[in-house]
Design a protein that fits this description.
By secondary structure, the chain is of the alpha/beta class. The protein contains 5 helices and 9 strands, in the order βαβββββαβαβαβα. 29% of the residues lie in helices and 27% in strands. Helix 2 packs parallel to helix 3. It is globular, with a radius of gyration of 18 Å.
Length: 146
């Protein structure tokens, strides 16, 4: 199973990064690719009032942005590649991002199934494009290891 993940460069994601690299990547049949998002400070353009905003208007903390690291493209490429190699029958796509809809539709044209898992009230268009879907909220308590 191929898994693509992105983590923040900040220390808050270090536990996740370590778990992905030192545990999950070492499990049989798993290949994990972790990309680090570098946070950048800078102004954000407001389309409504047509101004650059450099700090939060409520607390005055500088706004930060995480640039796209190509995770969506890597996931879509893996899904399509694995489908055409004939090594999957069902894919579980954990995302609410509508950008995956064209890849999902193409994969399902081959008769394969894509199941969408996302947070409740997110990604309805992607969920409707998939063969099946379920909210992660409903299984979260079973995914947490004590």
């Amino acid at each position: 199973m191929d898994l693509n993940a992105s983590v923040k460069a900040a220390t808050g994601d270090e536990k996740l990064k370590n778990w992905l690299n030192t545990f999950l990547d070492r499990q049989p049949s798993f290949r994990v690719t972790v990309r680090t998002r570098r946070v950048r400070s800078g102004a954000v353009w407001c389309n409504s009032c047509k101004t650059n905003i450099e700090a939060c208007p409520h607390c005055n903390v500088a706004l930060e942005r995480s640039p796209e690291k190509g995770i969506d493209a890597a996931i879509a490429t893996d899904l399509l590649s694995l489908s055409w190699q004939g090594v999957l029958d069902v894919a579980i796509l954990v995302s609410g991002d509508d950008d995956f809809i064209p890849a999902v539709e193409r994969i399902q044209e081959k008769g394969l199934k894509v199941v969408n898992a996302t947070w409740q009230n997110h990604g309805h268009e992607l969920a409707h494009s998939c063969w099946g879907s379920f909210p992660l909220d409903s299984v979260l308590d079973r995914l947490i290891r004590e």
